[in-house]
Amino acid sequence: MLQLIETLLTRIPATFQSDDYRSRIQELQDDFQQREDKGFQELAEQAREQQITLLRTPHGYTLGPMRDGKLLTPDQFSKLPPRSRSGSRRRSKSSMPN
Fold first, then answer.
1. Which of 12, 20, 33, 65 could potentially form a cystine with 88 if both were Cys, beta carbons 3.0 to 4.6 Å apart?
2. What is the pTM of this model?
3. Where are the domains of the chain?
4. Where is the composition biased (Basic residues) (predicted)?
């Protein structure tokens, strides 16, 4: 039993430090990043069709209203007629995944 424990104490750390392990981790991270980028692009295109922009932020993602293909600032948005603001909010909510 002691022999098994000693063997495991050396082999387990060695496995997590091996080049094969590191390569596999990198492959998985690259694959995940590609899937995330593809999903982001698809959602961004769907949002753009609704005059909404999907933005990446340091804390995740956010939606913003667009006008003539450009992101509106909060000040520009507040100057829109109430009907336009409510339509933009409604489209933003409908663009959010369930």
1. 65
2. 0.63
3. 39-88
4. 86-98
Q: Which two tokens mark 85?
A: 């603001």
Q: Tens digit of pLDDT for each residue in 4-29?
A: 999 999 999 999 999 999 999 999 99
What does the radius of gyration of the chain's CA atoms come to, in whole angstroms? 24
- Annotate 24-91 with DSSP letters as a single string: HHHHHHHHHHHHHHHHHHHHHHHHHHTTEEEEEETTEEEEEEEETTEEPPHHHHHTS-HHHHHHHHHH
> Which residues are within 8 A (CB) of 15 and not within 5 positions of it... i.e. 6 or more apart?
21
